[in-house]
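ingest -> fold -> write
write: protein_1
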Amino acid sequence: MRWLLRFRHLWRVEPAQPPSFEADEQRAKTGLEHAYRDQKQEDLDTSIEVLSEDADEPREEEQGSPAPAYDVGEVDSEDLLSEEADESHYSMDVVEARIEGADEHLLEAEHIEPE
């Protein structure tokens, strides 16, 4: 019978009270503060790592190429002041677009309502 009294506390069930709003709020606040501190430290470490990289290495810049249809020749100031008519390049690289009926393929599209 003594051993039964010794383990009696194992069968006793105490009603658990739900935590109060203040306790939940404090726990959430503490969790957010820790998450913010960790994220801030991670951002600082990343920034320091990027800034401490060797800045002497030149970065390769992409070299663009001019459009092949245009002449990229040198221009003299005398050419700009001349009275001759300049050559017009407005007709180059022009796309003829058909606007009428351009949206006909949308007539058969299925209409989906957002949920």
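write: protein_2
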Amino acid sequence: MIPEFVQAEQHIQNKDPTTATLSLERVQDICDSSMGTTSPMSLSVHTMMLNYLTSSFSTTTFDPKLKSLAYQTIARSTTEPNDMLTCAYLALVLGKPDIVLNMTPSETTIDSYHANLHLHRGIAFAVTNSTTEAIATLNQAHDTFSQLDTTNETSELGQIHALNNLGCVYFAQATPPPSTTTTEQATEEATEEATEQATNQAIATWKKALHLITTTSSSNPSTFSNAYKICEAEILSNLGNVHTETGDPNEGIVCLSRAVALLTEIHQEYIIQHQIEDNGNGHPNIVRPLTLLGRAHHADSRAVSAEGYFRSALSLLDTKLATGVIAPTIQLQHLETLRMYASLMVDWESRSGDYKIQIQLANEMHQSIVKNGAIAMPMSMSLPIPNNV
């Protein structure tokens, strides 16, 4: 009976979630004013709003036209578990981790809702540099997921996401600030020991996650979905980065090449399945392993190959930039790629002019990120899109 509701459904069918959300905003206002914000109709529309917003905001897409509306929507009170998880997801994407930290999960209830809430809270703690809390919460998420039905994809993927994020938090500890209470030599030795320990913890945790993926792939190949492959690519990218930065770029290249191959395979399957033309964008996650491959080749003194990977990554980023809907995480990736490319130009004879171009672009991107004001989730961490979208 409400024209805007019909329009919203039409827009979502036409894969235009932004316009659909704006149409649904009017429906929400009508339901709230005529039936109350806690009426079944208003709550149902709120659920739809969250789902539409999730399609408009992710780690790869970000529509500034909906920013204010998104903040209002996730701030509304809700007790429906799926809606709360969607609010937590959007809060992290929109740079509002405090909203997630204010969600208090039960310490004793064992179900997928509480497991996922622990996972989101672990990311929120990591984003706010609360390392101890992040480690404890992500361990709790992993333990809760592991107590669910082990044949359930939600349980297995949840464990993998928790382990990947836990490894990221461990690795973030690999560069602790220098102490001012000991001698300089003792401080350096302690720092090196702490760095090695944290790095080894991260690698062991990521390998544990990869083992779980391999076990699932071999034991249940019919249920091994692309979600597992995306997780595997994320973890391989993290491992590849660590190997490069700890002096083994060749092993880094092996991991990162596998990550690129997995994401390329997923993208090609999608093109064939939906019978659409390949626009050359590739899988949204592929930019990071391409960038890290450039860094690994640079570290291995293969400048020409390194530039090829950097330029491929930047080409994909420029395509996304042209759409005008760049998520904070993609902006951070763009900045990282530009800086790594600039570092290659510094080490390359007669490329000082190119260095100046890349570093200027990096500075402009940094200013854009500061102006945006959103705290992006770390690129190395896993944030699963809500299942109900």
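write: annotation protein_2
The chain is about 75% helix and 0% strand.
Residues 1-78 form one domain.
pipeline exit 0
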